Amino acid sequence: MTKYKLLSWSALLVSVVLLILPRIIPICNGLMKNGSPMSCHYTYQAEFIFALLAVILASALFVLRTKEARLLTGFILLLLGIIVIVLPQPWASGICQAGGCVKTAFFSNIGGGWLALSGAGIVWLTEKKQSK
Amino acid sequence: MTLQRFLVVAFLVFVLGIGAVYAGVNRVPFRQEGAHEMHKSSLSSIIITAYSGNVSPLTMISNGKA
């Protein structure tokens, strides 16, 4: 298996894990006193949509043939990984101060970092091949 | 797999995912009874009542009626 394939599979795997993460490690499922969901609910709804996009892009890595397309896909995966880390931050969408979502955020940050590294790795590999 | 076929499959997967968000399949269902102790709204009930209705909170406080 080439390094490119390995990174593509790793990006796909982590995207799928990010997609189902709130099912494996649940976020807060209670409602606030006024009946509205907590901020972590909205954060992880957004994370789901970004993870869905990451799954599609990571699977595209197996179909794309040109170097430019692979480079751009890897770069967007890198950006998506950063978005996954940024969303639970209090200055972005945020999560609850204390609750189950803190644990989910810990693992989603690891997943986001992994996705960003895979994207960066794909960019670096493709760039290296192009310059040869 | 050709790129065209991939795009069709990717679009279907995306629509399916948005459907999952709509149906709430992607998350654990809400607990209906009682509020989470750590996450009670910071607004007091008197202020919530004042903002949801047309009553001024100042009037309610001066009258002493909620």
Helix residue percentage of chain A: over 70%
Gross morphology of chain A is elongated
Number of helices of chain B: 3
Overall pLDDT of chain A, averaged?
94
String of helices and strands of chain B: HHH
Helix share, percent of chain B: 40-55%
Number of strands of chain A: 0
Strand count, sense and closure of the main sheet of chain A?
A: none
Radius of gyration of chain A: 16 Å
Ranges of chain A where pLDDT stays below 50 over 5 or more residues in a row are none
Strand content of chain B: under 5%
Could you explain the architecture of this structure?
The complex is a heterodimer of chains A (132) and B (66). The two termini of chain A are 21 Å apart. The mean pLDDT of chain A is 94. In chain A, helix 2 runs antiparallel to helix 3. Helices cover 73% and strands 0% of the residues of chain A. Chain A has 132 residues and is mostly helical. Chain B has helices spanning 3-23, 45-52, 57-63. With 66 residues, chain B is an all-alpha fold. Chain B is rod-shaped. The longest helix of chain B is centred in the first third of the chain and has 21 residues, at 3-23. At the A-B interface, helix 1 and helix 2 of A face helix 1 of B.
Write out key terms for the chains shown.
heterodimer; A: 132 residues; mainly alpha; 73% helix; 0% strand; elongated; B: 66 residues; 3 helices
Give the structure's gist in a few sentences.
By secondary structure, chain A is mainly alpha-helical.
Topology, element by element:
The complex is a heterodimer of chains A (132) and B (66).
Chain A: H1 3-24, H2 39-60, H3 67-86, H4 100-131
Chain B: H1 3-23, H2 45-52, H3 57-63
